[in-house]
Amino acid sequence: MKWRNHLDIADAVAEALALPPQGREILRQASIEPDKHGERLLRFDRRGEPYLRWMRHHRPDDEVIEALAWKARRAFLEGRDDDAVWCMGKALHFLQDEYVSIGPLGRGHDSSEDSISELRLSRETVVSGVQGAKVSVNFMRECIQSVRPYRDPLMALNRAALFSGALAASVLRGKDPERGLKLEWIAARRRLRLVILPTTILLAIAAFVVSLMTNEILIALVALSALLAPFAYRRYWFLKEEMSWFDP
Ligand SMILES: [Zn+2]
Question: Left, alpha or beta for 38 (phi > 0: left; psi -120 to 50: alpha)?
């Protein structure tokens, strides 16, 4: 995507999130930074030696965008707003580039980039992305994973604008979890301590005792309840992850 589009989206995101003038300028600069200086990733070779690899542009790894989103989130929670906006801007750049259709063997990329750059952005698209966003780690991941290139330039620009707004809002808003999430997390922790953990221990003891006997019905019963155990933990792990977005 061309700088003009990156900057247009940055302006719209800054406005929708009501960033101060300085924050807006940082977001604008960060949104074009990867095209100026590239982005290097720390990797390890077969012998375990670290090296810096230049990131493939226009096909960035999802993990890079997610890592930047996490960096931005931590900075935001710690009150380092400028750092947060800087990391977010770079994440948005890579996200937006991913919407540009590349075509076979990389051909067609420049032409689709050119036609996108002639389009004007509708700011309402960014605003609806911001309004539809959830402050949630799983929402942030869904935004990143849902990205795919579009051949139609208008579609590519609109999608990039919508999800840039959504991603930025899921990272740069809400320092405290919503009341509902907080209460459910407290309840889930209590349930784990008072019900799920003791049941698991009982099951383990039962499995041992039953293994000494040859009662097939009992063996089947114990095996069946052991199979259900992971489901009891699933919600707990989900909530734990959601809470990590507020206290990494
Ligand atoms: Zn780029």
Answer: left
Mean pLDDT throughout 146-159? Answer: 91
pLDDT digits (tens, 9 = 90+) for 22-66: 999 999 999 999 888 766 667 788 888 887 776 666 566 788 899
CA 15 to ligand 1 centroid distance, Å:
22
* CA–centroid distance, residue 61 to ligand 1 (Å): 13
The Å distance, Cα 148 to ligand 1 centre, comes to 15
Tens of pLDDT, residues 87-144: 999 999 999 999 988 766 655 566 778 888 888 888 999 999 999 999 999 999 999 9
| C-alpha span between 223 and 230 (Å, rounded) | 13
Residue 57 C-alpha to ligand 1 middle, in angstroms?
Answer: 6
Determine the distance separating the centroid of ligand 1 and the alpha carbon of 147, expressed in angstroms: 15
Q: How far is it, in rounded angstroms, from Cα 217 to Cα 201?
A: 20
CA 184 distance to own-chain centroid:
22
Residue type (1 letter), 173: R
The residue ranges of every structural domain in the chain are 3-171, 179-244
pLDDT of residue 231: 79
